[in-house]
Amino acid sequence: MAHGKLIVLEGIDGSGKSAQYRRLCRKFEANGIDYNHIVFPRYTKESSALIRAYLGGEFGKNPQDVNAYAASTFYAVDRYASYKDDWGKKYQEGAFFLSDRYTTSNAVHQGSKLTDEELPEFFDWLEDLEYNKMGLPRPDMVIYLDVDLETSLRRMSKRQNDTNTKADIHEKDIAYLEKCLHTANLACEHFGWVRIPFKKNGVEREVDEKNDEIYRLILEAINQGD
Predict the structure, then answer these.
(1) Residue 168 pLDDT > 80
(2) Distance between CA atoms of residues 157 and 23, nearest Å
(3) How many Å apart are CA 138 and CA 64, to the nearest integer?
(4) Which pLDDT score is estimated for 158?
(5) Rounded to whole angstroms, how far apart are CA atoms 117 and 60?
(6) Radius of gyration of the chain (CA)
(7) 3-state DSSP assignment of residue 127
């Protein structure tokens, strides 16, 4: 069956994902590339109610208070509702979608609650749940934005100050964020994600230089088979 293209941008909080996402959208528009964009979680939708309760601490003040499998289903349901309500038909008709987070975020954020030995089984369960059982599309490419913990924390703090928002239970837990970075490295290897290094020759890379690389990768991916 013919279907569209799905490219996912992934990264922990403070990885610069949103900045890259905005730049990519502007670049697509400037170059006349027909694209659609989706963002997860969908905090304003009813399907994200359990996500909001979880992140708000209603089920426990620490991420570990809700196990990886249970929390993953909260996010999976929101994605399923989005696919059925918003974008599934257009995707099946051949449209190109750029997604800010996707099923891949469960691998990083919920997988970080497990030991390295438990992760392969969890990764396989996630794939089976969302792609096979729920029927969500597999991405054509997942682009993972690497970052270090210090930069992630600095950017999150600035964002919270700028937007006058408070950190959720994920963002408050530094040890959890550190484990997310470790888990993301393992997920990259397991799933074959494309990693965008944070530094080059020991120096933090410029946002636009990284964006040029990401843009080239996406063009190659969406033009394959055409």
Answers:
(1) no
(2) 22
(3) 28
(4) 66
(5) 25
(6) 17
(7) helix
